[in-house]
From TrEMBL:
Single annotated GO MF: flavin adenine dinucleotide binding
EC number: 1.14.13.196
Full protein name: L-ornithine N(5)-monooxygenase
Cofactor(s) this protein cannot do without: FAD
Keywords of this entry: FAD, Flavoprotein, Monooxygenase, NADP, Oxidoreductase
Family indicated by similarity: Belongs to the lysine N(6)-hydroxylase/L-ornithine N(5)-oxygenase family.
Length: 656
C-alpha cells in the first residue's frame, strides 16, 4: 500500500524558507481554512474539493465526524464525505489551534503543519487535529503559489457531557473481595489486566465509568513478570508511558496531595533512555499504576462462561477465583488479553517422537540456567527476530553453545535509528506531542516517512552489516527499499530485529548460524533441515511468534467456550449468544484494511454490539484507550451515533 501511494515529490526550491518567516505559515493556513469553512457552510462540493491537493490527499478521522476510525483518499471522496459527516455532526468552524509552522522536511517535501480545533454539536464535543499543506504553482508567469491540503486529520478530544476528570482517578476502588457477594454489576468488564486493560480502565474512570478487570494471573503486571528473564523492550522508555503518567499532565500534581509517593509514579530517571525497559520494569509499572489509581480488578480469574443477552443488552461472565465462583453482569465487554501473544505458533515437523532433547516454544522459555540444570550444552534457536536474539544472547552468556536458524532474510534495524530524535526518540522530548505527531498521520504516510528516514541513516553507513552477511546471516537493512518497519509492525506483528548489539556475537563467531533452510524433522539427537543437513542439539527453542493475530481464532476460548466450535444457536434461548456465536460475529483484527486503518481494534464490530478489542503496542494503548473509552461513554449516555462506514460521492452525496 505504501508503494502504491508514494509521498509527493515537489520541485526543489519551490518555496524560499525566508518567505515563510514570522506568521506567514499561520496566515496561509487561515486562508485555506476560510475557504474550507465557507465551502462546508454553503455545501459547495467543487470549492471544497479544490481545497485539497489534487495528486494525493487524505482525511484521517478518529471519532470526530465519522464516530469510527477512517481514512479517506482523494479530493472528490474527501469533499463528499466531509460534507455529509459535517452535517451529521453539526460541525462548527475549523480554526487554527495556536500557530502553524513551515517545515522543509527534504528538498522535495516542504509543507505547512497546522494544528486544528473545532467543535461538534451532535454529540457536543471538543475536537482537535491537524492539516498538512503542500505548495502548488497556480500561475508560473506570476510565480503565484497556492497552498493545498495534503493531509487533513481530525479526532474527538472530549465529550461535553463528561470531560476527562483526572481527580476521579484518586477515588477509592470498589470492594470486590469476599464470597458474600459473588455477583456484581459494572458498566464495563475488561478481560485482562495488562497495559492495554489498565490504560482503558483509567480512561474510563476519568470519564466516570465503572469498570472491573478480570485477570487470569495472580498479580497485576504478571503479563510481563512471567515472561523470559532477559526480555527487554528495544524502544525509548517514554514511548511506553501509560495515560496520565506523563509529567505534563495534572495527575502527577494530584499525586503530591494524595497518599501516593510521587517518586514511585511513572518510570524513574534511571529508567529513561538509553536504559531499555526489562520485564520487571514493565511489571512494576503496571502494579504501581493499578495501585496509584485504585483500579478495580479481580485476579486469578478463570473465565468459565460468557453469554450476551440480545434482549437486555447485558453480558454475563462467570469465572472461578480462589475464593469461589463469581459472576459479572456488564453493559460492555472488552477483550484485552493481547493480540499475537496468547497462542504460540509451534511449527509441526516430522518425527517429534524420536527426539530425546528439549523442544519448547519461546513462551515456555525462562532462562538458560534452567536448561543447563537439565544437562543442556547445545541449543538451537529457531527464528531471527527480537525474541530469538534475546534468547540467543542469554544462552551464550550462560556458556551454552548456541546456533541460530535464520529461515529467511531478516530486516535488521539499529537501535540508534529507532531512538533517534527524528524517530521514536521524539518521545523523550514530550509524549503527548509525539503521539499527535505520529498518530495523526495515515499509517502508510507515517510508514513511508519512517522508511525514508531510516534509508537516509543507512546511506551514511552502507557497510554497517557487511560483516554480518559475510558471517552467513542473510541481513536486510534500511537501504533496501522493500524494508519498512511499519509493515513489519502492522502486517507481520514482528519479524524484524532492533539491533541492541547481539549481531556482534554472530560477526565474532561466538554463536553459530544456519541460514536459508527450514527444519523439516527431528532425529534422536537433533534436527534435520530442508537441505538434507542434520544439526546435533540438546535443546530447540522455537522463537516463531504467535498464531492469534486475529482475535476470532481465540475469542471463544477466552470467553470460556470450546475453541474451534461452530456457532450454533444456544439451545432454545434464541436471544442468548454463547462464546462461539460471539466469536463468529467479531470482525478480523490486526493487519490493515484498504484505508490503512488497523482492523477490528478500538472500534465497533459490524455484527457484534457492546464488545470491543483493546490491544496493540504501548503507544497504541495510551492513544486508543481514549478512543475506546469515549465510545463506551457515549453509548452509556445514549449519545453514540451510528458509525459512518460508507463513502459518499459528489454525484450521490450518499453511500456507495
Amino acid at each position: 500500500m505504501m508503494d502504491e501511494n508514494p509521498v509527493p515529490s515537489l520541485t526543489p526550491g519551490l518555496i524560499d524558507p525566508a518567505s515563510m518567516a514570522g506568521d506567514a505559515a499561520t496566515t496561509q493556513a487561515r486562508a485555506v481554512l476560510d475557504r474550507l469553512n465557507s465551502a462546508l457552510a454553503t455545501g459547495d462540493t467543487k470549492t471544497l474539493e479544490s481545497c485539497f491537493y489534487a495528486e494525493q490527499a487524505y482525511w484521517k478521522d478518529l471519532l470526530a465526524l465519522t464516530w469510527h476510525l477512517r481514512t479517506f483518499r482523494g479530493p472528490s471522496t474527501i469533499a463528499a464525505s466531509l460534507l455529509e459527516t459535517a452535517k451529521l455532526r453539526e460541525v462548527g468552524a475549523f480554526e487554527v489551534d495556536g500557530e502553524a509552522v513551515f517545515l522543509p522536511a527534504t528538498p522535495v517535501l516542504q509543507f505547512i503543519d497546522c494544528p486544528l480545533v473545532f467543535r461538534t454539536k451532535s454529540p457536543a464535543g471538543l475536537c482537535r487535529g491537524k492539516m498538512l499543506l503542500l505548495p502548488v504553482v497556480e500561475d508560473a508567469n506570476e510565480n503565484k503559489i497556492a497552498w493545498k491540503i495534503w493531509i487533513f486529520s481530525t479526532r474527538l478530544e472530549s465529550l461535553d457531557v463528561h470531560p476527562e476528570d483526572e481527580k476521579l482517578l484518586q477515588s477509592p476502588r470498589r470492594p470486590l473481595d469476599g464470597p458474600d457477594s459473588p455477583d456484581f454489576e459494572t458498566d464495563v468488564l475488561i478481560i485482562g489486566a495488562g497495559n492495554a486493560a489498565v490504560a482503558l480502565s483509567a480512561r474510563l474512570k476519568a470519564l466516570g465509568v465503572d469498570s472491573v478487570m478480570a485477570e487470569r494471573n495472580p498479580l497485576p503486571g504478571d503479563n510481563w513478570a512471567l515472561r523470559y528473564d532477559c526480555m527487554k523492550f528495544h524502544i525509548p522508555t517514554a514511548f511506553c508511558d501509560l495515560p496520565y503518567m506523563c509529567a505534563s499532565t495534572d495527575t502527577l500534581l494530584l499525586a503530591l496531595t494524595s497518599s501516593a509517593n510521587p517518586d514511585t509514579i511513572g518510570y524513574g530517571e534511571e529508567l529513561q533512555t538509553p536504559h531499555l525497559l526489562s520485564r520487571q520494569d514493565l511489571a512494576d509499572q503496571v502494579r504501581r499504576y493499578v495501585e496509584t489509581f485504585n483500579l478495580n480488578a479481580i485476579y486469578s480469574a478463570q473465565i468459565q462462561r460468557t453469554e450476551y443477552d440480545e434482549s437486555t443488552k447485558r453480558w454475563s461472565i462467570t469465572f472461578n477465583t480462589p475464593s469461589g465462583q463469581r459472576r459479572a453482569i456488564s453493559k460492555h465487554l472488552v477483550l484485552a488479553t493481547g493480540i499475537g501473544s496468547q497462542k504460540p505458533n509451534m511449527p509441526k515437523i516430522a518425527d517429534a517422537h524420536l527426539y530425546r532433547g528439549i523442544s519448547i516454544h519461546s513462551s515456555a522459555y525462562k532462562n538458560a540456567t534452567v536448561l543447563k540444570q537439565q544437562g543442556v550444552k547445545t541449543v538451537t534457536v529457531i527464528g531471527s527476530a527480537n525474541t530469538a536474539f534475546d534468547v540467543l544472547a542469554d544462552c551464550h552468556a550462560a556458556g551454552l553453545s548456541a546456533t541460530m536458524n535464520v529461515r529467511s532474510p531478516t530486516y535488521i534495524v539499529p537501535l540508534e535509528y529507532v531512538c533517534h530524535p527524528l524517530s521514536l526518540g521524539a518521545y523523550d522530548s514530550g509524549v503527548e506531542a509525539a503521539d499527535k505527531l505520529f498518530l495523526s498521520l495515515p499509517s502508510f504516510v507515517d510508514g513511508q516517512l519512517a522508511r525514508g528516514l531510516f534509508a537516509m541513516f543507512a546511506s551514511n553507513e552502507p557497510e554497517r552489516y557487511t560483516a554480518l552477511r559475510n558471517a552467513g546471516f542473510p541481513a536486510m537493512d534500511s537501504a533496501d527499499p522493500s524494508c519498512a518497519l511499519m509493515h513489519n509492525l502492522l502486517e507481520r506483528a514482528g519479524g524484524h530485529y532492533v539491533d541492541v548489539g547481539t549481531t556482534d556475537l554472530i560477526v565474532e563467531k561466538k554463536v553459530g548460524v544456519k541460514a536459508n533452510v527450514e527444519p523439516t524433522g527431528y532425529t534422536e539427537t537433533g534436527l534435520r533441515f530442508s537441505d538434507g543437513s542434520v544439526l546435533e542439539t540438546d535443546a530447540v527453542i522455537w522463537c516463531t511468534g504467535f498464531a492469534d493475530g486475529d482475535v476470532r481464532t481465540t475469542a471463544a476460548e477466552i470467553l470460556g467456550g470450546e475453541p474451534n466450535t461452530d456457532g450454533v444457536v444456544n439451545g432454545e434461548k434464541k436471544h442468548i449468544l454463547a462464546p462461539a456465536e460471539i466469536a463468529a460475529r467479531l470482525d478480523g483484527t490486526w493487519g490493515v484494511d484498504a484505508e490503512g486503518e488497523i482492523r477490528g481494534m478500538w472500534k465497533r464490530h459490524g455484527d457484534a454490539e457492546n464488545i470491543w478489542v483493546m490491544g496493540g503496542y504501548t503507544q497504541q494503548h495510551r492513544w486508543h484507550s481514549r478512543t475506546l473509552a469515549l465510545q463506551i461513554k457515549a453509548e452509556l449516555e445514549g449519545l453514540l451515533p451510528e458509525a459512518y462506514r460508507g463513502t459518499a460521492t459528489k454525484e450521490s452525496n450518499g453511500y456507495l
